[in-house]
Amino acid sequence: TYQLHTYERKGASDKEYVRPVYQTPVAPSSKVVEWFKSRGISQGTLEALNVTEGSEYMPQTGKTENTIKFNYYMGNQLINIKYRDGRKNFKLYKGAEKVFYNINSIVGHDTCVIVEGEIDVLSLHEANVPNVISVPNGATLNHNNLDYLDNCIDFFEDKTKIILAVDADEPGNMLKHEFIRRLGAENCYIVDFADCKDANEYLIKHGKEALSSA
Question: How far apart are the first and last CA of the chain?
């Protein structure tokens, strides 16, 4: 039996963050559920990983949009929210702490998988790989600020195998090498998605069983 969060927060001890205002969760509409289904992801996985729906102001469009909400929990506390609108614009909750998405899932495991996006987390969960987390802000070509790793570093103290399943492109490759540098080459293992860019594309093209063994 594992307590979900008894860790001392090493990375966040010297900084104050805004916490998202809790709102009653709104389950994804049938339109959103159908879109995820087209990506190989079931409604059960959306419920298990705290995916909800709601209106949010998006600076990219300058107006309030209907958004998919990826809720970032640590223990039972809501730490951050990633919003995605229909035009594939994203934003995080302003001033909130950056942590890995689905971080609770790796407690009690000596192995974890790191991916580059929330949909890749959902994809691996769908393939019966539950101990998977995502970076909150993707990968960039020139500089990757891993402040979310500092904020969650205590979750990795008992990990003996860290599987890096980031995107198969140049920014993903740079992110992979930064994780290897920070977490240690002796602990890191690499996933090759063959003819696919990421876990979700692999799920759609090859199915759940193939993804779980990739």
Answer: 29
